[in-house]
Amino acid sequence: MKRSSLLFASLALLFGLAGCGSRSIGNKIDDQFIAPQVESNIAAAHADLTSPTSHIVVTSYNGVVLLAGQTPRSELKALAEQATRRVQGVNKVHNELQILQPTSLLARSNDSLLTTKIKAQMVADATVPGSRIKVITENGIVYLLGIVTRQEADQATRLVQSVSGVQKIVRLFQYSN
């Protein structure tokens, strides 16, 4: 009896949360599978893409994939993008890989702190739909993905601009208006 109650409560929560965003449950599930498949394809494309000479962050939101991070050669950047495009469910690829040596652990820690500060401010600001915006920070560059109105995108951008330590903002939104 307890097990079925727990299952029912979990399903109710899942469907309730699904209604909070503009993506369907299917899209959310697809995104959960796209990123690992992209990572696998990138690893198979060239050994240097997973070696210590590269640092690649893969994020998927509504079938839009962001490749961020660093790789030492432009041909590796192109290979990563090609590998990403071969994954079923990928609608668009934003290849933001930089041709650089990978960032240090300290830089990655700073990026995590920046993301945390931005998300906390989004939660506190009722004009920014933080639950519909994915924030990824890499090497001080903040990438914003989500399905929002242009006004919400502008408000989110203003909020991110106010956070100390942000080097650049890249808006990768899909607009609902």
Question: Tell me about the biggest sheet?
Answer: 4 strands, mixed
Number of strands: 7
Percent helix? 40-55%
Taking all Cα atoms into account, the compactness measure Rg is 18 Å
Shape: globular
SS-based class: alpha/beta
Determine the N-to-C terminus distance: 46 Å
In the predicted model, the low-confidence regions spanning at least 5 consecutive residues are 3-20
CATH architecture of the largest domain: 2-Layer Sandwich
Organism: Pseudomonas zhanjiangensis
InterPro entries: BON_dom (IPR007055), Lipoprotein_DolP (IPR051686), Transpt-assoc_nodulatn_dom_bac (IPR014004)
Keywords: Signal
Domain BON: 30-101, 110-177
Commentary on this structure:
With 177 residues, the protein is α/β, with parallel strands linked by helices. It has two domains: 25-99, Histidine-containing Protein, Chain: A (2-Layer Sandwich), CATH 3.30.1340; 105-175, Histidine-containing Protein, Chain: A (2-Layer Sandwich), CATH 3.30.1340. The chain is 46% helix and 24% strand. The protein has helices at residues 2-18, 25-45, 74-85, 105-124, 150-161; strands at 55-61, 64-71, 92-99, 133-138, 141-148, 168-171, 174-175. Strands 4, 5, 6 and 7 form a four-stranded mixed beta sheet that branches. A three-stranded mixed beta sheet has the order 1-2-3. The protein is globular, with a radius of gyration of 18 Å. Residues 1-18 form the signal peptide. Keywords: Signal.
